């Protein structure tokens, strides 16, 4: 089957929510490797299409994040300048390792629209740490709830990380859609180098 062909897949979409900051269960900091430096979380305060598209493809490429790939520069900027949209990213040793995109809505809800790590940082305890910090930022506006949805095409540890931090499943659905026979990756031909980095615990 050629890389340009598509497959029809059935996947389970899962919605999760957190109704109070007190429900947050912070990640265990002992899983972090102190020799690599203290992880930090930073808000990207200036909207940057190139920066966000980098994270979208580098983090989501192996997991069939496809919806925004056709977006033009203007479409990206329109989204990033939408009131309530925020990008938070983690660094360790000065290097970005993952990000979370928040959307604060007028009805006092916060959606974690996207969250994930660059492949080489999976399995080092950074996923749980970054998710903890993104959740804390989400609750800064005192929303009614923080929520997200994911599917089983996403990273294998995604739901485990969300529930470990205190999210609760409130809805599931099965959907059928067409996807490329091979996930797009961050750029053409990147699968070989990234494959050995995936499949680890993203917590």
**Rg, Cα atoms, Å:** 17 Å
Major sheet attributes: 7 strands, mixed
Helicity, as a percent range: 10-25%
Mean pLDDT: 89
* Estimated share of beta-strand residues: 25-35%
User: What's the order of the H and E elements?
Assistant: EEHHEEEHEHEH
| Class from helix and strand fractions | alpha+beta
The overall strand count is 7
CATH top level label? Alpha Beta
Determine the number of helices (DSSP H or I, runs of at least 4 residues).
5
Tally of individual domains: 1
Arrangement of strands in the largest sheet: 2-3-4-5-6-1-7
CATH architecture: 3-Layer(aba) Sandwich
Give keywords.
203 residues; disordered C terminus; 7-stranded mixed beta sheet; alpha+beta
Can you characterise this structure?
- By secondary structure, the protein is of the alpha+beta class.
- It has one domain: Gcn5-related N-acetyltransferase (GNAT) (Aminopeptidase), CATH 3.40.630.30.
- Helices cover 22% and strands 32% of the residues.
- The chain contains five helices and seven strands; from the N terminus they run E-E-H-H-E-E-E-H-E-H-E-H.
- Strands 2-3-4-5-6-1-7 form a seven-stranded mixed beta sheet, sandwiched between helices.
- Strand 4 and strand 5 form a beta hairpin.
- The N and C termini lie far apart (33 Å).
- The relative contact order is 0.27.
């Amino acid at each position: 089957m050629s890389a340009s062909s598509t497959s029809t897949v059935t996947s389970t979409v899962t919605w999760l929510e957190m109704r109070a900051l007190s429900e947050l269960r912070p990640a265990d900091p002992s899983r972090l490797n102190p020799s690599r430096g203290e992880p930090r979380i930073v808000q990207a305060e200036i909207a940057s299409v190139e920066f966000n598209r980098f994270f979208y493809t580098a983090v989501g490429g192996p997991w069939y994040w496809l919806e925004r790939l056709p977006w033009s520069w203007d479409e990206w900027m329109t989204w990033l300048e939408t009131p309530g949209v925020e990008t938070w990213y983690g660094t360790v040793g000065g290097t970005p390792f993952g990000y979370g995109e928040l959307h604060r809505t007028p009805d006092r809800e916060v959606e974690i629209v996207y969250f994930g790590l660059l492949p080489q940082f999976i399995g080092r305890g950074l996923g749980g740490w970054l998710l903890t910090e993104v959740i804390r930022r989400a609750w800064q506006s005192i929303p009614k709830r923080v929520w997200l949805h994911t599917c089983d095409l996403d990273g294998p540890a995604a739901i485990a990380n969300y529930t470990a931090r205190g999210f609760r499943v409130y809805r599931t659905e099965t959907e059928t859609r067409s996807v490329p026979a091979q996930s797009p990756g961050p750029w053409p031909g990147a699968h070989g180098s990234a494959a050995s980095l995936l499949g680890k615990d993203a917590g």
